[in-house]
Amino acid sequence: MSLGQDLAYHLPFLRRYARALSGSQTIGDRLVKQTLAAIVADQASFPTDVDPRLGLYAAFLDIWEDQGADAMAGEAEGDEAIAHRRLARITPRPRQALLLTEMEGFTSEDAAYLMDTDRAEVETLVADAVAEIERQTHARVLIIEDEPIIAMDIEQMVSDLGHDVCAIATTHSEAVAAARAHRPTLVLADVQLADDSCGIEAVKDILTDFRVPTIFITAFPERLLTGDRPEPAFLITKPFQRSTVKAAIAQALFFDDATVPA
């Protein structure tokens, strides 16, 4: 199997990581493209002693270290401007560790390899990131989920994180009505809803009324991470871990201007 075939499966998830780390689909996708170009230009340097996914993320982080800050500074509008205000309060390495372990599912050992450190420091960085982001953010959450047990589990997780659940909706129409009534500051949305409607369409209708960060939940992430626009910046795969939801909420709120400290 060629290197390209080895890496192809992992690219949608690398795009997810790049977008979450930068807070921008534009910047994240551009840095991923630069990563692939660098690998193609020098395939002999691609590590063969680790899993291809590790090698791919390591190559991306090399690009990120070189160009990430400049890329964000060059487009410091909207989400990027919000990110810069938050980045003044939390350093990038804790966020890298948080995303690698809790969203991307790397072990602490793998994250240590990617970040050129050790497991103990990774675990400390993750704890620091979670604590700092939680201090900065608080949300009113709309949950769009048609499976009662999953909805209850998410509601409990959201409450445990110190956020308020303003409503739970199971259909497209319920979701739109709840959003208009409660004006949530975060939406957690399943893709397939009870009336066979689509959570993505419900969110699109909500976004015509006001801007709100959204995290999609699906059993089939590859159907959404296709490289086409628009794509969700924050995506959780079913079955999910509580820590994954926690990390995704923290990152989504990280780029939301409603909770940026003055």
Automatic annotation (TrEMBL):
Residues bearing PTM 4-aspartylphosphate: D190
PROSITE patterns assigned: RESPONSE_REGULATORY
Domain Response regulatory, chain residue ranges per copy: 140-253
UniProt entry keywords in alphabetical sequence: Phosphoprotein
A Pfam family this chain is assigned to: PhyR_sigma2
Gene Ontology biological process terms from the UniProt entry: phosphorelay signal transduction system
Residues of the signal peptide: none
InterPro entries: Bact_response_regulator (IPR050595), CheY-like_superfamily (IPR011006), PhyR_sigma2 (IPR053866), PhyR_sigma4 (IPR053867), RNA_pol_sigma_r3/r4-like (IPR013324), Sig_resp-reg_PhyR (IPR014605), Sig_transdc_resp-reg_receiver (IPR001789)
Xref: SUPFAM superfamilies: CheY-like, Sigma3 and sigma4 domains of RNA polymerase sigma factors
Claim: Oxidoreductase is one of the keywords in the record: no
Name of the molecule in the record: Response regulator
Lineage: Bacteria, Pseudomonadati, Pseudomonadota, Alphaproteobacteria, Sphingomonadales
